[in-house]
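User: I'm writing a tutorial on reading structure tokens. Could you give me a worked example: one chain, its sequence, then its tokens, then a sentence or two explaining what the tokens reveal?
Assistant: Sure. Here is the example chain.
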Amino acid sequence: MRDIREYCGIFGIMNSQDAAHKIYMGLHALQHRGQESAGIVTSVFDETRGKKVMPVHREPGLVLDVFKDPTVFDTKLLGNAGIGHNRYSTSGAADNHANIQPFLVHYRDGNLALAHNGNISNAREIRRSFIERGTLFQSTSDSELVLHLIAQSTRRKQIDKITDAVSQLEGAFSLVILTDEALIALRDPNGFRPLAIGRIPSGTGNRAEEAWCVASETCAFDLVGAEYVRDVEPGEMIVIDQKGIERGSFESYQLARNNGVSQCIFEYIYFSRPDSKIFGEMVDKVRRKMGKQLAHDAPVPEVGEDEAKPIVISVPDSSNTATLGYVSECKKLGQRARYEIGLIRNHYVGRTFISPGQQSREQRVRSKFNTVEGVLKDRVVVMVDDSIVRGTTARQLIKMVREAGAREVHFRVASPPVVSPCFYGMDFPTQEELLANQHEGDVDAMAAWLGVDSLGYLSVEGMRNAVSAANTGQHGYCDACFSRNYPVPVDMTVSKDENEW
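And here are its predicted structure tokens:
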């Protein structure tokens, strides 16, 4: 699956002497969640001005490119607290520099920086009300609305203004907010997007010297030496300040829940790294469960006893662990199958590798994947992928496997057919572009279009059972892209064209 794009990764830290370096490492671990731009804001006391200031560095590009000058950490991004953001635009034009986060403002309560992962579904309504009051906007991103809501709140305390602001939002929003005194982390009441809390122990054992951090995924903690503590709960807002660090506990506020908990199930299927723990469970474990359930819903094809076993290959990398679960369960069920590596992914292909005028899909796919002919030739091949959206990439990969000499090609998908777009922070094609809708859900017709001998999906019920079996401690997931059951009302008429703002 390559037709759904990642959205954003966020990271925040408090009470670390090398805060910017830690954020940089955290963003590097979260690079898979957004590759368009990156930014870091820190908080430091300026003795010349006699007050706190928030230096910022943000540019288009990958983390390694944006922060390639090491002096930025020694001369600019100073202080012991900060937040960072990797961006993929689900709302707000990708080529607009003003949309690069974190956003930073100075208002009557001091400095305020914000980084957002998700998509605010009532953004158009909120923006229209601001425009009618004469509010000026610097960006086309829905994230900027949060800053305006905070700044224009009539509440007296800053924390109450933030609570008032986020209580007016609908949709998906995991936020890290940096004030002059605190790092604030919160998730929307549905808990669509993941957000975890980590602790970096002090070398002396002194609690006051511990650093605390929050991140979209726990893989970011591993790179900075942090211990996973727990998730920010759906609808919870955590205030991490120096007093809380010294006593080992933080103020927690709960937003009103109106629609129940609906955590994004696609985080398990595709977006998150397999070495991350999200929604309380390791992604690797959940994907293996999905692969095992797929073996029941769509097993490998049967071949004669005198024929070679069908080989099962993954479409790297997000389907690797689901494929392992699929093969192991097929064997347990008495089906003949063998795991092989038949596709190699080139991890070093840049976004501009193919020159202008040569941007055909076939060339893009071939620049990223190559077949292992010695493995595939004359074999019955079962390809496992995490999902199919438009199907154009899958079709090209299937063609490549056939050209490598495969006798038969069968395709298995470790998720159900995608039938609806997402309005909670994932960049989906339109409803009409989805493969399943183009063929009115006819699996045989989809198989013929893809060019495979057979096509099999994980059922919606099988997906739900796999997630529940792997993560018994959590309840409530959003699977609207598979079921059309949207847990929060959305404006289906709103285009994803950011220029409509």
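What the tokens reveal: Residues 351-358, 494-501 have pLDDT under 50 and may be disordered. The longest strand covers residues 110-120.
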